[in-house]
Design a protein that fits this description.
Order of helices and strands: EHEHEHEEH
Radius of gyration: 13 Å
Number of domains: 1
Helix content: 40-55%
Largest sheet: 5 strands, mixed
CATH superfamily: Glutaredoxin
Oligomer: single chain
CATH architecture: 3-Layer(aba) Sandwich
């Protein structure tokens, strides 16, 4: 499940509603951001019940201050409302999947 998050309130509500979530932060004119998204979405699909939140920083500039984001893309894993893993700019998909697997297994 992918969900666009268009406000800080929607972002905060999204991470508080779910035990484990992945957030992908991107910008409109970022080719790397758009190339990484299908890869992240493919990883998240393998984890039933884990939603993927999409934040377009071009439309929600204040997310940068809220999450201390200095570059895009940024992919985050939140567990119980807390940021547990972050990768920015160069995303190591194997490491990202490994971290997500560890947190997913701790839920069961």
């Amino acid at each position: 499940m992918q969900k666009p998050l268009t406000s800080i309130e929607a972002f905060n509500e999204f991470i508080s509603e779910h035990k484990l979530v992945v957030i992908h932060i991107m910008r409109d004119n970022c080719s790397v951001c758009h190339a990484v998204l299908p890869q992240i979405a493919g990883i998240v699909e393998d984890f039933p019940g884990v939603p993927l939140g999409l934040v377009n920083q071009s439309e929600l500039e204040e997310i940068a201050g809220e999450l201390s984001i200095f570059t895009v893309p940024v992919d985050l894993i939140f567990f119980n409302g807390k940021e547990m893993h972050r990768q920015g700019r160069f995303i190591d998909m194997q490491q990202f999947e490994h971290q997500l697997t560890l947190m997913y297994q701790s839920m069961t």
